[in-house]
Structure formats: structure tokens, C-alpha cells
Design goal:
single chain, alpha+beta, four-stranded mixed β-sheet, 6 strands, elongated
Amino acid sequence: MKGIEISKAYFEEYGKPMLETDFSEALPYLCVGLVGSGSECFGFDDEVSRDHDFEPGFCIFIPGEDVLDRRTEFLLERAYAKLPKEFMGLKRGLVSPVGGRRNGVIRISDFYTDKLGHPDGELSVQDWLTLPDSFLFEATDGEIFFDNYGEFTKIRNKIKECPEDIRLKKLAGNLLVMAQSGQYNFGRCLSHGETGAAQLAVFEFVRAAIKTVFLINRKYMPYYKWSFRAMRDLELFSTFSDSFEYLMTSENSAENAETKSMVIEDIASLIIGYLIENNMTKAVCGDLEKHAYSVNDMISDPNIRNLNIFSAV
């Protein structure tokens, strides 16, 4: 049973009755779910995940003090702490009465400030350009069981998708990194006899290519250790994961280097084909660099378009 299913079952059996019985007046202002950090929020948890920070629990998101005062927050946290300490063979950790860890009572403004730097999800262009996608992923992952007040979901929906001009800027920058590292520097490093540097070039290519795949799918990329796991669930180019693993884990012998170069060009070709088919580039060639600048030219806002092409990488 996945962690999010355990969380929901724990809430239905113990959390919901507690809220309905003891906090009926506060209930219209509450949002409950499992959102944030941890593989259980993403649906990526397995048996290995249970060795740390894995417990039955849920988040109770509450609005500002102008709606629910500190006393109500304290009473909610104390009631949450008193819920059964074990469920389905899993034990809960200790929760402080002044704030939970990943679960428990959390102010909506505190949650979004922690993830986005802003309590209301109002992000500037600079925020969108520089905020790591993994933070946006964690702010929009998991599952909301209910949101009676609506504030949490309103902010969540506001940041659910990256603005198109920002997406194109990120895409252009990562395409250029792919061109420089994979189509150019990998072979150049090998020609110099620098096999270690060649492998660094491969890593740069793969890192940028993974970001590109998520951008094409209009999805936020999670923290790097979950990027392959998440990519396998994507609609487009999910099968690239095997090619990426091969590029990173194989040696740079003469025979392997030739194969790796072909794999890199195959990946580039498929991505270019997608860009052309979806009218995202006007370039007609196999050079990712030219397509990167063409994608950048598609940006509507001149202020974003004229920024350095790497400004969102």
C-alpha cells in the first residue's frame, strides 16, 4: 500500500472524526491532504522508503491568523499529536505542539513561503526564471483530500503550470546546453584524450535533456534522485530514460564512444522533430544550437526573449 493511500486511510479513520467532532467551527476553513516533500507525496515510495521520515499522517493546512487564531492552531496541533501513534504497522514520530514536521498543522502562507519564497504564490518573472522546478513540483504534488476554504487550492492552481514564455526560455537554454555538451564537446573531449571530461559532457547533456523532456511534457521535474522515476511516467519521450542511463553508465572506449555519439544524435533528432512538428522552431537542420535560438525567438515578451539564453537554466 502506497504512503498516500495509508495517509488517506489514517485520516478517514482518525483525523476526519477528530475534526468533525472537536473542530466543527474551524472545519470550513481547513484544507487536508498530503503535499510536500517525501516520496510518499509523489507516489514513488517503496519498502526502502520506510527506513526514514515515513509514517502515517496528513497535513492540515490553515489560513492566516486573521481567519484562524493561534489558539485554534495550537489546539489543532495538540489534537493531531494525540492521534494514534501506530497505524498499519507504521509508527508516527514525535510532533511538537508548535508545528509538525512534514505533516501536522501548517499555515498555508508558511507552506508556500517555504516552497516558493512567497506566501500567496505570486511569482515575478525573476522568480519563475530562477526557482528550481523541484520546489514547484513539491508545491503541486501529492493529493488534497478536501479544501473547504479554497485558499490552498487557489494558490496551487496558480502555479500548476509554468507560464509559456518561461517554459520556452527554459527550453531554449537547455537545448543549447544539449548542443554544446552532447553534439559538440563530447567528441571534442575524446579527441583530446580527455575521457573524464567527455563523461562530464555526457552528464551535462543528460541533465539538460531530462529537463527538456519535462518541459516538453509541461511538467515540473522533481529533485534529481527522482527524475528518472518521474520521467518514466511521462507521456512523451519517457523511453529516453534507458538511453540516458546507457550514456551515463557506459565507458568511453572507442567502440562505446561511437555508439554514444549516435545515441546523442538520435535523441537530438527526435526532439528536433517534435519541435518542428509543433511549430516551436523555424530552423531546418540537425543542429540543436540553431533550434535553441529559434525557440527563444518564439517568446512573446521581448523582456524575457532578450534575456541571456541561459538565464533560466
